[in-house]
1,3-beta-galactosyl-N-acetylhexosamine phosphorylase
Amino acid sequence: MATKGCVTIPTDVGIDKEMQEVIKRWGADAIRDCDGTKLSSDLQNLNLKMYSTYLPTRNDQEWAKSNMDQLQQLYVVSESNIALDTTISIDIMKGFYKEQFKPNTKDDIKSLWEVVDRTTGEKIDSNKWIYDYEKNYVIVNDIIPFHEYTVSFLVYQIWDPTQMYNHLTNNWGDKPHEMPYDGRHPETFEHMKNYLQNWINENPEIDVVRFTTFFYHFTLIYNDQAKEKFVDWFGYSSSLSKECLDEFEKEKGYRLRAEDIIDEGYYNSPFRIPTKEYLDFVDFQSKFVATNAKEFVDIAHNAKKEAMMFLGDNWIGTEPYGKYFESIGLDAVVGSVGNGTTMRMISDIPGVKYTEGRFLPYFFPDVFREGGDPVGEARENWTQARRAILRKPLDRIGYGGYLGLALQFPEFVDEVEKICEEFRTIHNNIQKTKAHTAPFKVAVLNCWGKLRSWQTNQVAHALWYKEIYSYVGVIECLSGMPLDVEFINFEDIRKGIPSDIGVIINAGDAMTSWSGGENWIDEDIITVLRRWVYEGGGFIGVGEPTAYQKQGKLFQLFDVLGVDRDLTYGLSYRKYNELTKEHFITEEIKEGFDFGEGKEGIFKKRDSVEILSIHKGDIALSTNNYGKGRAVYMSGLPYTPENCRLLLRSIYWVKNMENDMKEYYVSNVNTECAAFTEVGKMAVINNSFDNQTTDVYIKGELVETLTLKSGELVWMNIK
Amino acid sequence: MATKGCVTIPTDVGIDKEMQEVIKRWGADAIRDCDGTKLSSDLQNLNLKMYSTYLPTRNDQEWAKSNMDQLQQLYVVSESNIALDTTISIDIMKGFYKEQFKPNTKDDIKSLWEVVDRTTGEKIDSNKWIYDYEKNYVIVNDIIPFHEYTVSFLVYQIWDPTQMYNHLTNNWGDKPHEMPYDGRHPETFEHMKNYLQNWINENPEIDVVRFTTFFYHFTLIYNDQAKEKFVDWFGYSSSLSKECLDEFEKEKGYRLRAEDIIDEGYYNSPFRIPTKEYLDFVDFQSKFVATNAKEFVDIAHNAKKEAMMFLGDNWIGTEPYGKYFESIGLDAVVGSVGNGTTMRMISDIPGVKYTEGRFLPYFFPDVFREGGDPVGEARENWTQARRAILRKPLDRIGYGGYLGLALQFPEFVDEVEKICEEFRTIHNNIQKTKAHTAPFKVAVLNCWGKLRSWQTNQVAHALWYKEIYSYVGVIECLSGMPLDVEFINFEDIRKGIPSDIGVIINAGDAMTSWSGGENWIDEDIITVLRRWVYEGGGFIGVGEPTAYQKQGKLFQLFDVLGVDRDLTYGLSYRKYNELTKEHFITEEIKEGFDFGEGKEGIFKKRDSVEILSIHKGDIALSTNNYGKGRAVYMSGLPYTPENCRLLLRSIYWVKNMENDMKEYYVSNVNTECAAFTEVGKMAVINNSFDNQTTDVYIKGELVETLTLKSGELVWMNIK
């Protein structure tokens, strides 16, 4: 059994001896040297691979100061203003943090800015407004009293959002503000490349250039109280400029409006149904970023160094499931692992040599203090990620923060030692083979499809929001299940559902990108899916699937699901919701159901429906038959062990393959198994922190009853 | 103090002596003689006014049998059917109760029936379908596989819904089914009049003809299990016929489609935003019913009898707040009093000489049995209605059912004696004067306006539904408050808000008639209301007021309300919802708030907002300033004593008249007062069944502290 490798640790200063010890115990083979400081010769002799972070957009603040017109820009929208008269003065910077933004008045504001009547949605003719350059006011004339007006405008980002966040959070006082520059400008881009080349020349000991990241930060806007106003981890608004819009026009053949970015003030949040224009913009920026990032990667490669990308911060334009990502030529991606979903988001990334996950907790004083529970957090984070690792492992794991802090907690050091050992054992045992999965794929259907694989219904990765946890549970369950999962969009449906897909899941709130909105009144989508289920496909709807209120129903696939949601128009219909007591999909779920926030007003619309759970009179869980196909409706699916099992059973049931479920199976919902048939081994895991007894099935036969200790992983031979 | 009058009791047989006793104790002066049986001479000597019920549409079943083509008809829609091929056979009667309906195939089905593609909403050309008269199947050809199809068709009502309901509920076995005929046919109408004339001639002892009611029953459709399928107390679908559609076309200049009545299967439920076509139809039928009902009333009047209408059952076309109602010339309306709202619905009816309320409980064995609580029910019903009676009293009260049953419960007889006495005392004390009200009117704004006064957000009157109780509380609170209340619609707003309106309330779910739907993206509505509030009006929104998702907001008057609801598009915005601890509107509410079902995702949109209650992170109660005006938002308002007070205080606060609230006022939320300044008397009521101590304010001054016993009403002199 290997005792070394696959683990990265952070450096720290003045603890050489302790570091040597922990490197040995954790089997670390790489070290992340945040500040480019040299390692001591003792450590250098350990032959550790050395990573160094590199921030392409702001590591030369002299350049930033000398080229203020080449800073990164955003399109932002002013607060909403109600006209009291036929003229209005709008303080465009009101509500924004003036340390972060400065209006760009250098470029032609008349063609780049927009005043919009938000009562009608109409753009105001630009000769009706003027700009007061002193006060930052837009004065609009000849308008309609008591209509609402906003100004969309470009601002320079005069404080890098990540540095601003760290600066304000950690009270860095008068430490200078760093400004991010935009590689869209050829001069700046050339400078960025030269700077990288110099840095590489000056740091020959580095093995891996860890880019954080390339060009554009996700959208992070502060308010006038220097607090978060708007945060969209997926947002492209911070990548705008006149030059960008000009080039977009050249490439795509039409010009974007400010409104295409502003999007009524929602800035194209991932919950919005993406417009063609926005998708074009994402494509355009991704291509630009990929093309240019490749030049950075090439510089690293030419110096015989690996290029690793951090999945976060300035990651806009490098979405790893986008069509240009692979062309960047990266060796590796590293990202933070908050749970099974974020683990899969990293480990499934195509076209890189390896992936690495940064585990929790970070070695920061918020956890590593008296009363903190670093051991518990590490164990929980590992256990939730482990079930997903068994499906598609990361190649490496690692930790971040101040190592010295962690070393003060010996039990934590012990715990991580066990985790590293278990991680390497998985790799050694499975020998790069893939765990057994069902003989069909499961597809998650929404407006984003593959581009946002493992990112559905997320505001920011692994953060809890009341509005999303009942949906995020779906992918969190899937992340560790013995199934091949794909993410598809409505275009994929229009092209014809691939034959290897057996089950389609649609989960989200009505009129969001996750549910699908107007796609559900597209005859083609409806008829293709109906026929597909009728001929044997399985369909699972969660929350408000297939929802668009039209022609007497909210759920347009009410016939497939067998249920609909009544938005009170149908209150005059008597609802007869009666429970079916026993059903295959709820067989092993002993405890009460948890559908999270759920949905109200769900009622039976077809006689073939069986209702398995009712909440306050409304259906929370039901099944339906549709031709040779089947469907399940759930009002929500937070991540719980019971819900993992409920989803697994639902998937086999809708696919009409109940009898195949126990090919490799463990009965206790707190346990799961992953069978590696090529190497004749099966991992059985206990996801709970209690002892669990579970029946093990192979090829449908009960072969053994195991008892697993808290969080234990047991390997069985299955040859 | 009067000891007799204003009370109606039901007859019963074989209990003459006991009846004389109870007539004396309750002070009854009228008797409702359900079956037209003669009273004993002893009772006749008591000089009681005598009512007799009359059912115009079904009291001659011989006529019904001989004129089966003149029975009442409905437009109904078949169940939904998914085509599996390019042809489909639709069993149109599937899911309907065949004892209730029979398809009308006598009239031209090709012009009267419609096959609709519910996937697209398009009507199928009538030459694409044929009807199998044997099987009741519509066969549609040349259609699109996996589209959804329905058939809208006319049926004869071969069982009167009220009789069917009673028949099935009480297991009347082989008692013949009564069929309702349609006065739209001149022959039938003539017969109905003659029959009434004969009946009147034969029953000279009757003083009051109590019509139940005139022509058309509300929509009541049973399913194939002989259970309720669809019940709409406001529904006009049971008043259709070819003749009616022909006359509509003549009168209104265009022809209605079946779909105008079917309405995607929702049958124009009151929760739907009424179309112009449907409003035209309501107007057309109301005019027809009023014109013809008047002829019935005239027959009664010519015989020196009073004409009284029962508000229910066959009341369609006689909506008492409609523009034709007064022209019927009725002497009186009687209806069932379930609470304050239904009491006001009756007592506010314009253009009749008197109103009468039937109180609960009915003298039926479901309550009048061992373990039943008739005393409690009577007391609760009276107490909830009494606060509304003090604002606008009924002229008479009464009870229904089997009197003999009630007499077996001596405590009930005592309780009703007290109620009758208290009712008469109110009349004697107030001397037909009106209770003091605020110096401004409160308007409830929705799509129905005046026509559905005191009927907002109701499925059937006084029935509890999870979906409505959080809104119905608004009118239930208002029914007993010292305010003049009007019900207005969006047309009224377009015409200009009347100057006597001080506060407007909009309460309902998004996209329903009660909230207003697309009216909220009408620039005129928006600007008129904004200006009106800005200049000093008060606005109160409950649930999803002013809601229509457009241009970055759901609540189109987000600026007035200061809050909006986020349907997840704005999740990336950080919401800073902080509580304000003290506020005028919550001053007297000591207990926890109850917003009923509430709404999620309500957040602060204006800095001027003060948040008074937060539920699961979302705003449940807030206030805002808007120019000289003000607004309050509540996520729901079930009827509770605390919520009555919360609404009262909100109304005075939004009107900027906090200092005027205590003109006549009692401090304890379980108590209310009604000041009759013209007669110098004030009633103070205890709405609870505990003792309550309350401070009494007159003209802003604390004048007395009263202690009231359970449910007590105390009269004070205020001269």
